[in-house]
Design brief:
Elements (H helix, E strand, L loop, with lengths): L8 H9 L5 H15 L9 E4 L3 H15 L9 E5 L28 H6 L3 E6 L3 H4 L10 E2 L3 E2 L15 H8 L5 E6 L5 H6 L3 E4 L19 E6 L2 H11 L7 H7 L30 E3 L2 H5 L7 H4 L1 H10 L3 E3 L8 H20 L13 H10 L1 H4 L5 H9 L7 H23 L4 E3 L1 H4 L2 H4 L3 E8 L6 E8 L4 H15 L10
Helix pairs in contact: 2-3, 13-16, 13-17
Length: 493
């Protein structure tokens, strides 16, 4: 008997082909499950809005299947979209903020290939408000003034991490098959790891950011979340299918200049070709075992067992190179974000970018709205918004900002040298995965087990060279098979 809540893309499509399920039945199942464990009193609050057209989309897909027997890559697959990614129709795109409740935006560029591939956009996922660039006054990950507090399905007392909290929780709790999140500084990888799902943060420039409410043009990207590496790879390939209106995408992918509306030079990446192999012979993996274990209390070492993970990789044929170091440069990262946020959000809100519905036209408008509606909008304050408004010109001319960009280039050079000097295929561990967004390198995380004391998932995180997602996916896929880990939260069972 197929467990629809935790079925993979291939399992659901097999059921469609054999006539055991219809797309409408799957959509109705997930809506009922959302009502039961997410939007109810005491629920997970991972879903901020349901697509009112989801059932109609499902019915149309069922008719299409009966008439053509054609099944594109995401046919009938429910997808949840983070609330800062634009979706047209009758769903809003608010970044979790009550200040943007009237933002009926257009589809972000990455939504179109999903629709063309037969996906059902089921709804929008809750998130840490403004992708965790709202305040430094103790706002927990997963909280937004619009959606409330997202709950970790493995442990209600544990922070669900963010800012793509709802995207991760919705997948972990079986409310949707796959989801889209965004990352500026750990916001895909961290919630994916905490909630026991697969998350991929692509190379900066692989995926178009057009139509996504921004923080930083230097760091922002979108990426997939799923319950297994295969589903994540399928979704990543689809959203890499378009490079419209994003200079970062054109910069890294264009071979010969063409007008931005000509997509011939932006071929979709087929990452399913890397889902093969039984061992890791010839794979070289860099890590810093000491740093990964540094913050783990002695009594928990047997549970976390990073050493055992390394042993598994070695037995599979991988060569581990230990003791690698790199400076994270957190202050430099925050400098860039502070200056770019004002410029980026003002550009997103300017009139020609949106419909006439939205009343907010600048960061200053958002701040003033929040102040006027403080009882609803400012439970935790807005210190980061104020800093961006008052300390940044929005012109990106400040010496501190320009010097920070140069420092980032040094970090990119160091990261490249780390791979080249040691002839590495991937890096393992959180030590490097939080440098990846700063430098634009790709990273991903997969579940590796579950703690006995708190029920919280364990994870392994990898970083690869730029545009080498395929190698990273291959390593994660083989490790996933070797570990054969299957974890589900107790909630909903």
């Amino acid at each position: 008997m197929l467990d629809i809540a935790y079925a993979s893309i291939h399992e659901l499509q097999k059921a469609y082909k054999e006539g055991h399920l219809t797309v409408k039945e799957v959509v109705l199942f997930h809506l009922a499950r959302i009502a039961k464990i997410d939007s109810c009193k005491g629920g997970l609050k991972s879903v901020i809005e349901i697509n009112p057209d989801a059932i109609f989309t499902a019915e149309a897909l069922d008719r299409r299947w009966r008439a053509t027997k054609e099944m594109p890559p995401l046919f009938g697959i429910p997808v949840m979209v983070k609330d800062n990614i634009g979706t047209s129709g009758r769903m809003r795109t608010s970044a979790g903020s009550v200040a943007l409740l009237d933002n009926y935006a257009f589809n972000a560029s990455i939504i179109w290939p999903l629709i063309e591939a037969g996906a059902v956009i089921l709804g929008k996922a809750n998130m840490t408000e403004f992708a965790n660039y709202m305040t430094r006054e103790g706002m927990p990950s997963g909280y937004s003034s619009r959606g409330g507090q997202t709950i970790c399905p493995y442990n209600r007392d544990h922070n669900p991490s963010g800012s793509s909290s709802g995207s991760a929780v919705a997948v972990a709790a079986g409310l949707v098959t796959v989801s889209l999140g965004t990352e500026t500084s750990g916001s895909i990888i961290s919630p994916a790891g905490v909630n026991g799902v697969v998350g991929i943060k692509p190379t900066l420039g692989l995926v178009s950011r057009d139509g996504i409410i921004p923080i930083s043009s230097t760091f922002d990207t979108a990426g997939p979340m799923a319950r297994n590496v295969t589903d994540a790879a399928i979704l990543l390939g689809l959203i890499s299918d378009i490079a419209y209106n994003d200079e970062a995408t054109k910069a890294i992918r264009v071979k010969n200049w063409k007008p931005h509306w000509d997509d011939d030079d932006y071929p979709a990446q087929d990452y399913t070709q890397f889902l093969e192999g039984e061992n890791l012979e010839g794979i070289r993996i860099g890590l810093n075992r000491k740093k990964e274990l540094a913050n783990i209390p002695e009594e928990d070492e047997a549970i976390v067992n990073f050493d055992q993970l390394c042993e598994t990789l070695t037995k599979a044929g991988a060569t581990l190179i230990d003791g690698l170091e790199m400076e994270p440069r957190y202050d430099t990262r925050m400098t860039i974000m502070q200056h770019e946020f004002k410029a980026c959000i003002n550009h997103y809100l300017c009139p020609y970018k949106n419909t006439d519905n939205i009343k907010m036209r600048s960061l200053r408008d958002i701040i003033e709205f929040n102040q006027a509606n403080a009882d609803v909008a400012l439970k935790y304050g807005q210190s980061l918004l104020l800093d961006a408004e008052n300390k940044a010109s929005g012109n990106l001319t400040e010496p501190a900002y320009l010097e920070a960009l140069l420092e980032r280039e040094k970090a990119i050079t160091e990261m490249d040298a780390l791979f080249e000097t040691h002839n590495l295929d991937v890096l393992l561990g959180d030590t490097f995965v939080y440098i990846a967004p700063f430098t634009g390198f790709p990273s991903m995380t997969i579940p590796t087990g579950q703690r006995k004391d708190s029920n919280m998932p364990l994870h392994a995180s990898f970083t690869a060279k730029r545009m080498d997602e395929g190698k990273m996916i291959k390593v994660a896929y083989i490790l996933e098979k070797l570990l054969n880990v299957s974890i589900k939260p107790e909630i909903g069972h």
